[in-house]
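Fill in residues.
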């Protein structure tokens, strides 16, 4: 990129306090998933709360930028689905049949697909209609 383009390029900056919160969010998320992998039920369940709460706060703080909001809401529903799936395994109801071949674990698809829907909205509908706007460049 030339100096001229670099000087006029749009930037998205994150305040340091927000960035620290996002980094802490990753730590909680990793602890939750490690606890799931190691079947440390109390730690895994406890880590749901800070992971999910910080995810919601991050989405709220980015609500004025459609791109960031859609991605952060998708992360929030991903954590929700992931947490439900973990709990279903911890409490041994994941393989119980709801109907046909559908088990309780499959209910995690509801928030997973909601996240896909949010990103589909952004990439297939919103972004093509707002090409010239700063946040979507």
């Amino acid at each position: 990129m030339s100096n001229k383009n670099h000087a006029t390029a749009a930037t998205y900056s994150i305040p340091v306090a927000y960035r620290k919160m996002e980094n802490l969010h990753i730590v909680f998320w990793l602890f939750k998933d490690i606890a799931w992998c190691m079947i440390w039920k109390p730690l895994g369940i406890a880590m749901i709360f800070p992971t999910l709460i910080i995810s919601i706060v991050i989405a709220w703080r980015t609500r004025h930028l459609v791109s960031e909001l859609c991605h952060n809401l998708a992360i929030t529903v991903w954590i929700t689905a992931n947490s439900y799936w973990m709990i279903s395994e911890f409490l041994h109801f994941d393989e119980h049949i709801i109907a046909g071949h559908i088990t309780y674990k499959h209910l995690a698809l509801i928030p997973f697909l909601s996240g896909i829907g949010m990103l589909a909205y952004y990439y297939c509908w919103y972004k093509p209609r707002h090409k010239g706007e700063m946040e979507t460049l």
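Residues 14-128 form one domain.
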